[in-house]
Amino acid sequence: MHTVLLKVTALFYLVGALAYLHFIFTLNERSPKLGRMLLLIGVVLHGAGFVARYFVAGYTPITSLFESLTFFAFAIVAVFLAFELRYNLRVLGAFVAPLAFAFSVFAAFLPGEVRPLAPALNSYWLPVHVILLFFGNAVFAVAFGAAIMYLLMEKELKTKKMGAIFKRLPSLDVLDDINYRCLTIGFPLLTLGIITGSIWAEYAWGSYWSWDPKEVWSLITWLLYAALLHGRLTVGWRGRKAAILAIAGFCAVLFTFLGVNLLLPGLHTYTNLSG
Amino acid sequence: MSEIVIVGLNHRTAPVEVRERLAFPADTVGHALRGLRERDGISEGVILSTCNRVEVCVLSGEGYTGVERIKEFLAAYHGMPIGELSNHLYHHLGEEAVRHLFRVSSSLDSMVLGEPQILGQVKDAYGYACEFKSIGPVLDKFFTKAFSVAKRVRTETRVANSAVSVSYAAVELAKKILGDLSDKTVMLIGAGEMCELAARHLLSAGARGILVTNRTYERAVRLAEEFDGTAVRFEELSTHLKRADIILSSTGAPHFILKREDVEEVLRIRRNRPMFFIDMAVPRDIDPDANEIDNVYVYDIDDLNNVIETNLEERQREAARAEEIVISEVAGFRRWLDAQQVTPTIVSLRRKYDEVRQAEVAKALAALGTADPKTRKVIESLASSILNKVLHSPVASLKRETDGRSPMEMVTVVREIFELPEEESGEGTEAPERAPEQGGSVGSQ
C-alpha cells in the first residue's frame, strides 16, 4: 500500500511538471495554479506514504535506492513549493518539477518492498543524517533550476536578442537572489549532514572518515559550495559565475548520490539498482 | 428597427488642426450629449473625444439617417460646413460599428498599437453618457461588452505587453536586469531629451534617486533640481560612478568617456553589483566592449531601437490574434442585437393573431346563439390550435440560427408578410423613443 502510494506520486509530479511547462509556453494563468495544486497533492500523499512505510518497516525508510530516490523527489517538491510561496515564481516550476518527476519515476521502476535493515544502519543517526542531506540536496536542486534560468536570461540580455525567454523569466536580480538564498540554506544542511554522518561512521565503522568514494565525493561537493559561498561573501561573486558554480555543485550532488552508488563500490553501498 | 451607427475621425483621416476643432473638452461633453439626444431619430448617444479621435456613437433608424444626423450635429455644434467636415469623417453601421468600437477599445485602431490609454478614454466617454443620461439599454450593453472584449484581448494576447518607445524599453530592461528598482540609483551624464525622458520613467518606475552630471556644472545643478536629485561635478564622475546602478549617457564627447577598464574598476569597487549602461550618445560615450564584463550591460541607441522593433513586430503578430477575438465577439454581440429585434417581432405576431382569434371565436359563438359549454370549449380549442400550428413555422424561422440569411432579414420578411405594426418593435427594450422607419417595410404598410 505505502509502496504504491510512493510510486503513484510520480504521476502527480509528471502532470504538475507538464502544467508548469504548459505555462511557460502559453502563459496560460491557470496552468501554474493547476501545477501547484498537483504538486501539493503529490507531496501530501508522498508524506503519508513515508509515514505509513515507517510504521510498517520500523525504521526511517530512506535506506534502499528506491527509498532514497523517492525521498529526494519528495524533498525537491517540498522545497520548491516553499520557494514558490516565498518568491511567487511560477516559471521556476518548469525547471524544478521535471527533476522531481525524473527521480520519482526512476524510483517507480525499482523494486520497492521493505527489507530487513542492515545492522550498521540501525541507528538514530540514520534519519538525522539522510534527512539533512536530502533536504540540502533538494535546496541545491532549486538553485540549479534558478541557475539555468539565470544563464538563459543573461544570454538574451548580453546578446540583446530578446525572445520568448526575456518575457517569461524573472529578473536576473531575483534569480541571483534565489541562488544566494539556496546557498545559505543548503550549505549548512550539507555541512551538518556530513558531520552527523561522520559521527555515525565513528559508531558504526569505528572511524570518522575513511575516504570511501561517497565521502570523497561529498567532500568535493562541499568544497564546491564552500568556494561559492566564500566567493560570494568575500569578493562579491554573483551572477553568471555563481550560476555556473551552482550547476557544477548540483552535478557533484547527483554524482555523490547516484554515480557513486551505481559506479563506485564502497562502504556506503547500501543502495544500488537491486534495492 | 434601429441600428448602431458610429461617425468619427481619427489621426489617419484628419490632421490635428481638424481634430482639435472637433474635439469635445470634458467640461462641454454634457452639453453636447444633450444636444445630440435632442436630434430627431437618435435614441441613444455616446461621444468619445481624445487627442487622436472624435467619435459619435448613436442608436438611430436604419440606413444612413443616423449618419446624416450625426454629421448635421457635428457641423452645427462646431460651426463647420458639413461638406468640409465630411472629407475627414468615416462611418460604420450595424455590425461594422460593433467591430469598430471593439477594435478601438482593444487599442487595435490606435496610432501606437496596443497603447493602454484608449480603454480608459472609452470608459470615460461611457461614464459621461451615463451621467448625462444619453445612453439607453442597447448602447449600455454595447459599451460594457466593448470593455470586456478589450480586457479579453489584453489578457489573451500580448498586444500590449512589451515596450515600444526608447524610454519604456530602457525601464523594461532595467527591471529585467536589476529587479526591484526601489533601491537603485540612476545617473544622468550630459543632457539629452531622450535621456531625461528615460530618467523620468525610471524614477516613476520606482528608482530611488538620481545623480546628475554635466560638463557645465550649472546645467547639472539645474537639471538635478528639476529631478530632485544630486548634482555631481563632471571631473568627479569616476568617484561617484560606483553609486549608480543605471547610467544614462548622452554627452557630445568625441571619444568614449568610459572605457572598458574604467567600468571594470568601478565594478570591482561595487563588488560586482550589476550596472546597466544606456548610451544614447552618437558618437558613443561608453566602450561597447564593457558589455562583455560579467554583470555589466551596455545598450546603445541602436540596441534599444532593435528591442523596440522586435516588440513592435510582436505586437503586430499578436494583433492578428486579437482581431480574431474581436470577430468572434462581434458575432456574439450581433446575436444579442438580433434577439432584441426577434423577440418583439414574435410578441407582436402573437398579439396580432390572438386578437384575430378572439374576434373570430366571438363571432362564431354569437352565430351559434346559446352554445353549451362543451361546444364552446371545442370551438375555442379549435381556434387556438389552428393559430398555433399556423404560427409555428414563422416563429421557428425567426428563432432559428439561419445560415446565409441574417435573422434581421427574417424579421423584415416576417413583418412584411404579416403586416406587423412598426411601433411594436420597442417591446423588450426600454429605449425611450424610436426612429421612424426608413427601410423597405414602409412601402408594404
Indicate the overall shape of chain B.
Answer: elongated
Average of pLDDT of chain B: 86
Give helix % range of chain A.
over 70%
State the total count of DSSP E strands of chain B: 10
Task: Provide a concise account of the structure shown.
The complex is a heterodimer of chains A (275) and B (445). Helices cover 78% and strands 0% of the residues of chain A.
Would you give an account of this structure?
With 275 residues, chain A is mainly alpha-helical. Chain A has two domains: 1-117; 127-275. Helix content of chain A is 78%, strand content 0%. Chain A contains nine helices and no strands. Chain A has helices at residues 2-26, 30-57, 65-87, 92-108, 125-159, 164-168, 172-205, 213-235, 239-263. In chain A, helix 7 packs parallel to helix 9. The longest helix of chain A is centred in the middle third of the chain and has 35 residues, at 125-159. Chain A is globular and about 60 Å long. The two termini of chain A are 18 Å apart. The model of chain A has no long low-confidence stretch (mean pLDDT 87). Chain B has 445 residues and is an alpha/beta fold. Chain B has three domains: 2-162 and 314-333, 2-Layer Sandwich (Beta Polymerase, domain 2); 166-309, Rossmann fold, CATH 3.40.50; 341-444. Helices cover 53% and strands 13% of the residues of chain B. Chain B contains 15 helices and ten strands. In chain B, helix 5 (94-105) packs across helix 7 (137-156), helix 6 packs antiparallel against helix 7 (137-156) and helix 8 crosses helix 9. Classes of the chains: A mainly alpha (275), B alpha/beta (445). At the A-B interface, helix 5, helix 7 and helix 9 of A face helix 8 and helix 13 of B.
